[in-house]
Design brief:
By secondary structure, the protein is of the alpha/beta class. It is elongated, with a radius of gyration of 34 Å.
Length: 553
């Protein structure tokens, strides 16, 4: 009679990383173990692979007919036989045979035992020393010298079939990804799969049964909006949990990992994610031409996602080959943090109390010869006035305005910028290949003799690739940025008063790379004047006159 081991103790599922224990115990005094494996574990689906229970039944029947007493059944369900993965059931069966606990290990078929080829099977066969492995459906016995050659052939056949199957699956997977089909079983939170296996917004309630509350798609959009407004991951998590919104999956509460994955997943901007996208700097899948593939309608704009990603990376340390991140500091809370520099030592100034100060005065360390400080109200007022007046006084052809327009376009329409950059890279690569071909012919003399007849065709193909890349590049219009409001002093002031600190920081950095503050040389109470600030404008060549030298670190 079969005695099933409780499901909680079944250790044959290698993906769970458990210790192997028998899937079933038949007779503790037995001298034969049964090994069964099924590559893919499916529920409610037809499968051409023989089920685990059928394999076990065949093994028991064979044992009784051949004078063996079945002892344990070892099972690896949903585990590949060709990949280098853990197979606890397989390892336990071989170990029992090696230790002499059993005389025979029965397996339904050779390809159920291993798909790694003849060498893997031969290594085990040579170590059996009087014991045997019997492959039931193949009627092959390792103890029979006449069967050894056939076992080698069958093992190689199994490996070849596995390799071909793997190639076909990989090709089908790649083709589906390039067609913009969603393949993964799990769909990102806030999205759902259509009949055509594309993705669209999930309009189901975020809280089950609450029809008046936000939908899952709206929760995702809220996360992006709060991140765009400068909220950190922990802050967003705290707000979501406070509002009682259930987290994705089985989690009851939101965590920072939930938020960070949402902020980085390219599915939310309608693009196909690459394999292992979470640990990649560029998380989007690209086809052979280097183009990104659309997977559905975007739930948020690409500009929002890039801004959220950049803000997170600015607050983290990145290290290791997989771009692993570790929290470093919180989001800047003050307008000029990261922009102001002390002219005396070059350090970034920090806000302490009512002033921006040289960090030497706060943290000590290497002394600053002339530590600067300025009351926050004055510093922020002077910088904004300089920003507003400088843009209002500039002509459209001014290098500063062109640089500001470029930064504005990169921030607000990164999709246009990225498309043009991709086309430019493809054109550059095509030209480089043509140049390399010409160098091979005329400089390195590689096409002399019989190989010379192949050069004309290669040259035509390379020139055709350059023309196609050039045409694709020329068809992409140059992005235009509408920054007219930045050139009107009154419109800038109105926009400034309405925006958050985070948006004000973004505006300033469109035109400013940095601001130096020098220490006042007067003693006692003196007026705070704007001449103590020196500005580094983007796109403008910085030429210092002698009077500016004392402002530079």
């Amino acid at each position: 009679m079969l005695t099933a081991v409780p499901e909680t103790s079944t250790g044959s599922d290698a993906r769970m990383g458990r210790v192997a224990v028998p899937y079933k115990i038949i007779n503790l005094d037995g001298d034969l173990d049964i090994y069964a494996r099924k590559s893919v574990s499916r529920k409610s689906r037809q499968d051409r692979e023989l089920s685990v229970n059928q394999q076990i039944s065949d093994g028991i029947r064979w044992a009784k007919l051949n004078g063996y007493k079945p002892r344990f059944v070892w099972v690896d369900n949903g585990v590949s036989g060709s990949k280098d993965v853990q197979r606890p059931g397989y390892d336990a069966g071989i170990r029992a045979l090696d230790l002499g606990e059993i005389k025979c290990l029965w397996c339904y078929k050779l390809d159920r035992f291993s798909r790694k080829g003849a060498l893997a099977v031969l290594t085990i066969m040579d170590a059996l020393e009087g014991k045997r492995i019997f492959f039931g459906a193949d009627n092959l016995d390792t103890s029979n010298r006449n069967d050894r050659r056939m076992i080698m052939w069958r093992a190689e056949d199994a490996k070849e079939f596995s390799d071909q199957l793997s190639d076909r699956v990989a090709d089908a997977w790649r083709h589906s990804k390039e067609e913009g089909i969603w393949l993964a079983k799990k769909v990102p939170y806030g999205l759902k799969k259509t009949k055509k296996r594309k993705l669209k917004a999930d309009d189901s309630p975020a809280s089950p049964g609450d029809l008046n509350g936000p939908t899952k798609a709206e929760v995702v959009q809220r996360i992006y909006q709060e991140a765009d407004d400068g909220a950190t991951g922990p802050t967003i998590v705290e707000r979501l949990n406070a509002d009682g919104i259930p987290a994705p999956g089985r989690s009851a509460r939101w965590t920072c990992i939930h938020v960070y994955r949402i902020l980085q997943n390219p599915s939310y901007i309608g693009l196909q994610p690459a394999s292992g996208w979470y640990n990649r700097k560029d998380p989007c899948y690209r086809n052979d031409e280097g183009r990104r593939v659309r997977i559905g309608k975007p739930l948020v704009s690409e500009a929002q996602q890039l801004r959220a990603r950049d803000k997170r990376m600015a607050r983290t340390k990145v290290f290791g080959p997989n771009l692993r991140t570790q929290g470093d500091r919180s989001a800047p809370k003050h307008l000029l943090t990261g922009l102001l520099h002390c002219a005396g030592c070059g350090r970034l100034m920090t806000k302490s109390g009512r002033s921006y100060q040289c960090p030497h005065k706060i943290r000590a360390g290497k002394p600053c010869p002339s530590p600067a400080s300025m009351v926050t109200e004055y510093a922020e007022h002077f910088v904004f006035q300089a920003f507003r007046n400088r843009l209002a006084a500039s002509d459209p052809g001014d290098p500063l305005i062109q640089a500001v327009a470029s930064r504005w376009l990169s921030s607000e329409r990164p999709d246009k910028v990225n498309t043009r950059k991709e086309a430019e890279v493809r054109l550059s690569n095509a030209k480089a290949e043509l140049q390399d071909l010409l160098d091979a012919k005329f400089k390195r003399k590689e096409f002399e003799g019989p190989s010379g007849e192949f050069f004309p065709k290669l040259k035509r193909d390379a020139e055709k690739a350059v023309k196609a890349a050039q045409k694709a590049y020329d068809e992409i219009p140059e992005g235009s940025a509408d920054i007219g409001f930045l050139l009107d002093a009154e419109l800038v002031r109105e926009a400034w008063e309405k925006e958050t600190v985070e948006k004000r920081r973004v505006l300033l950095r469109l035109a400013l790379d940095g601001v130096c503050i020098r220490k006042t040389y007067a003693t006692g109470r003196t007026a705070v004047t704007p001449d103590r600030l020196h500005y580094a404008w983007t796109g403008v060549e910085r030429v210092l006159v002698p009077s500016d030298m004392d402002l530079v670190a």
